[in-house]
Amino acid sequence: MGDHFSIRSTDPSFIELLRGFIGSFRTGSGESDWYLFSADARPDRRLGQKTIRGKHSLYTSGLLIYSGLSMDEMAGRLIRVLRDRLTGNAHEFVQLSGAGVVLDGGALLLPSAPSQHLPLLAAMLVRAGGAYVGDEILQIDPILRQVHPLPLPLLIDTEDISLLADLGREPVPELRSMEQPKEPLTNRRPVNVHELGGHLADPAPVRWIVFPSFAPGAPTEFLPMSRAEATFHLASTALLNRDIWRDRALHLARDLTTTATVARLVVGSAEKAVDLLTVSLPVAVGPPA
Fold this sequence. Notes:
Blueprint: E1 6-9, H1 12-22, E2 35-40, E3 45-47, E4 50-52, E5 56-60, E6 63-68, H2 71-88, E7 94-103, E8 106-111, H3 118-127, E9 131-134, E10 137-141, E11 146-148, E12 154-157, E13 188-191, E14 204-214, E15 221-223, H4 227-238, H5 242-245, H6 247-259, E16 261-267, H7 270-285
């Protein structure tokens, strides 16, 4: 991010929680005059036989960005802001909105507008053996045409994380006095790649580009897509820093869709989508061009 910053909290356990997710970025232990984040973390209290859950609030530069009952969600909101600040200045890459993993040395990209369910699909692909690239932002070197991983935790929707029950995350009570965020900017909970039994990918060439659309309950299936359509959708809905790269980003989109296999994917079930992407993809839509 270029600048050092500090995080302060009324409860040290929140700082310990963050260390488990972003502790590798820690550069020192001294105090700072600039606290980018301030957390008012309230402990639970006993009132007779009842437990009163403490409400937590997170601020950045004086702006309230989280109010709720979960330190886990508060950590997710903090990491999301950090990720956006980090990638917002990383213009050595062409950035795409979407998720990705590396399979057998080639990158599978899932370009998508922001979606509540995309990080869950990324997590399940990691569980199925994919090396992690990203869950909502993809970074592509426009010279070597390789996708580079983002070394941050996945941020999985609070409701979707129940489908990864073995992670041991407890349900989060709803804070009814606050309006809950709407899709796609829902509350998220951080999950480290190693918790999924996976690892961070090495930079890899793009082999497949599959555009997912989420339709719970619908048949999960591939749909054909022309390379012209893929180039249009990649450039119009997924490019995040086209104002920086301008025509070069459009040329990159065209070149990627020319050399990679392209398709649409209707995701009615995340589990079935993972099977299609990891087992049936080359058979269903053909090998890379």
